Amino acid sequence: MSDLPKGWASTTLKTVVAPYESIDPRRQPERQFRYVDIGSIDNRIQKITEPKEFLGQEAPSRARRVMKTDDVLFATVRTYLKNIALVTEDLDGELTTTGIVPLRSNNAITPKYLFNWVRSDRFIASISKSQSGTLYPAVSETDILDAMVSVPPLAEQKRIVAKLDELNSRTASARDALDHIPALIEKFRTRVLALSFNGGLIGKIESETTLPESRCWNLPAHWRWVRFEEVATVAASLVRPDSILALPHIAPNNIQSGTAKLLSYQTIGEDGVTSAKQRFYPGQILYSKIRPYLRKAVLVDFDGACSADMYPINVGSQLEAKFLLYWLVSEDFAQFSALREGRTVLPKINKKELNSTPLPLPPKEQQAEIVRRIETAFAWLDRVSDEYTAASNQLSRLDASILQKAFRGELIPQNLNDEPASILIERLKTESEAIKKKTSSGRKAASRPHKPIKRGAKMANLIEVMKSKEGWVSASHAAQALGVGDGATSDAVEEFYNELRIHLQNGDLEVERRGNEDWLRLMPINEE
User: Would you say the pTM of this structure is higher than 0.70?
Assistant: First the structure.
């Protein structure tokens, strides 16, 4: 930040934000509260999309912090996920969790500039270095408030935000258009398979056949309906997992729905699986018998073992293996299998019911042509999908690039007549100190009689504790005097540090680090 644009200032976030309030909603048991936790924020668009509601008497223990319009909510857990959002007017006065810090801009910075700063890759990379914890990596509120921010002149901030809004609206429109593509790809893939099994893909629809399920289906001439067991058999070759540790292991989770694609997998020894029941061989189809509506099947060209939830299938001479494969992943077959699912908690189709399912059977040369056309269409759809992914990634990089350009002062022209940010910050600091001095002038040294803190005593607030003890007091000693000792809840600890932060920002206390602990004392009073 040493090469800031002219008129900009580098300072900490605590210089440009104001304190927020915390309350206990259980003291208003009948009030209906709206509540924003981390799950309420859509981190893809960085907006609050799903606030929750509860009565005060039902409030979760972490629902404590009061939000105001234009507060920037910054989640302290896994900061790289960017759970960040601006509070909208309809949530003014409602609550957020202690896992979120409401950053309330003061007159030195605009809310939207602050929002864009803390969501930038530059800030996230910086603050994420302070994360601690492995299973629950998080930063503290102090880490956030001590982080640096580049502050342009106030008028320039507004021009930057206006330009960002304009550019972001364009990328948002592009993203919205792109977001329709995956559904269109899936719809097209489903349609290709539907046409494949009524002859439509090769233009051969000529007659109508009625199935036992009372469904009408147009089939070309020379096609016929057969039962699954007439053209394929379910193989069975039980194995002990410990005897085949080096073999690949395939389970339903290793197969992509509706595409006949094999995803990444491990050997039995690598994933420590104990449910490998079936041995399979090259040329067999693996079909997932659980949740048939997920349409999971794959043709394998290697030896391995599969879970008890998979059927290894041998294909008869009347069939092209891939013709059967694509039938098993089609919506039409999923509808037939749904009629045969067992009435259990986990939907599945057993071997007997699978054998009785119907299959439209064309001549074998037509099967090969249908497979060729399916794979040509699917290859094209895969290219479209890859282009969609590349375009989505490019948009994310574009957004990041725009923010980077903005915070280098390169997004808009500067106006050298704007009041420098350093002057504004200093003036606000002077005004704040004058207000603090005026409000604390009634607190005299004589009003601080020495009252030792009794072991086990619980006082009302932190200032009362500090008045009872002249000089420096360790933070842990002060917390114990407030009843926040060993075994205290995380909410109680959070409330203590929230009160401490507010008093530090107001200038009521000063802090000094000694070894591994903070020590506190009341700010000396000017008697003049």
Answer: no
- In whole angstroms, give the CA distance from residue 224 to residue 210: 11
Of the candidates 298, 302, 356, 301, the residue with the CA atom closest to the CA atom of residue 326: 298
Positive or negative torsion for Cα 256, 259, 264, 265 = positive
pLDDT in tens, 222-257: 899 999 999 999 998 888 888 889 999 999 999 999
Q: How far is CA 297 from CA 260, 287, 313, in A?
A: 5, 4, 10
Residues 343-394 pLDDT 10s: 666 788 999 999 999 999 999 999 999 999 999 999 999 999 999 999 999 9
152/131 Cα distance (integer angstroms): 28
pLDDT digits (tens, 9 = 90+) for 264-305: 999 999 988 888 889 999 999 999 999 999 999 999 999 999
CB 192 within 8 A of CB 378: yes
Q: At what angle do helices 364-406 and 181-196 cross, to 10 degrees?
A: 180
Q: Residue type for 187, please?
A: K
| 224 φ/ψ angles, rounded to the nearest 5 degrees | -150, 160
Cross-strand bridge partners of residue 224: 361
